[in-house]
Amino acid sequence: xxxxxxxxxxxxxxxxxxxxxxxxxxxxxxxxxxxxxxxxxxxxxxxxxxxxxxxxxxxxxxxxxxxxxxxxxxxxxxxxxxxxxxxxxxxxxxxxxxxxxxxxxxxxxxxxxxxxxxxxxxxxxxxxxxxxxxxxxxxxxxxxxxxxxxxxxxxxxxxxxxxxxxxxxxxxxxxxxxxxxxxxxxxxxxxxxxxxxxxxxxxxxxxxxxxxxxxxxxxxxxxxxxxxxxxxxxxxxxxxxxxxxxxxxxxxxxxxxxxxxxxxxxxxxxxxxxxxxxxxxxxxxxxxxxxxxxxxxxxxxxxxxxxxxxxxxxxxxxxxxxxxxxxxxxxxxxxxxxxxxxxxxxxxxxxxxxxxxxxxxxxxxxxxxxxxxxxxxxxxxxxxxxxxxxxxxxxxxxxxxxxxxxxxxxxxxxxxxxxxxxxxxxxxxxxxxxxxxxxxxxxxxxxxxxxxxxx
Length: 455
Ligand SMILES: [Zn+2]
What we know:
single chain, alpha+beta, Aminopeptidase, Alpha-Beta Plaits, 2 domains, six-stranded mixed β-sheet, four-stranded mixed β-sheet, 19 strands
């Protein structure tokens, strides 16, 4: 197992023991969302800290969807940092797993179970980091805040969003470190860590395609809503959407694409689309990481017809489409592109948004927080390089950036041993697990970044 440069192996062993025991206990509290029922984790963490002489607050609504927040205030002026992670997990289908998903089994160097990488690992790693900082006298300056929050995976009504709206006194800080980034890729002899300084928003929509009723034994010359829906799908997926090449992808291309000619073509909007296809043939993982950062895409996912029988033409077909917007873009652009794509298509359609439209957002980069992350990373993983990127999915960082314009929120929880390609397939999947060494590294890293920033 790899050593961690600059950290006493006895300390590493102690943090491995503490974090893995805590993570195992947290996994055993089933917080599958829905329904979540996360208050049990909030209460567990309150007791865990209280046993170490540290006292935090349970907050949130409804009563069974609460979060836990704890503050270490140095009493001296300085910046404030929030270590954030969510308490809920996605459901697990036990028969598909090698181990019971809520066992928290520690075996073969891993902690196993639902939440092991998304993201009870960080609930545990941040807690141990916070307790160790408190035990060594607390931060030298400013304020360290620890929070584990409800309701991230489904709904986002309670949890971080609620705290941001109702309890800025507890939760508002200058800097936030949250789940999402921190994985590393190895390409061309480099080891590149992904820092997510922003994330895409969602503008999911439903197209209602209207048609004429009738007996299906008689061919309908026009007005068959199913045929209209097929034309709509074809037009949407073959429409060339505008390419946006910005700071969310620049450093990934620069550091991870090793062929100079391909790198250049990926940077030019006129050649980037063909270049992405070439990249996908050479390195599909990397292409999958970069392509969503080049703008939005229409991904049709659900088709529903109101026909009551095979022999009846439907009057209505609903086509649901997933669509994610880059930070700085909005749903009006999505609407314009849908209209352009469907211009001239023989179908009678209307659009409605599915759920709330959430715009993507981003924090400035670089910043004092990215400098502290870079410095800490270089100390402990000397060959590491940092690349700025954006999350293509949603995290709670969005609420902080939207509500507190001065707050800088990054997604960063680094692994030491296992790569992006090894870890990310375990998200929301069977046999979710984390290496004990990586778990301890996430904790030691958070501890040292906090001490660096709050010095
Ligand atoms: Zn998560």
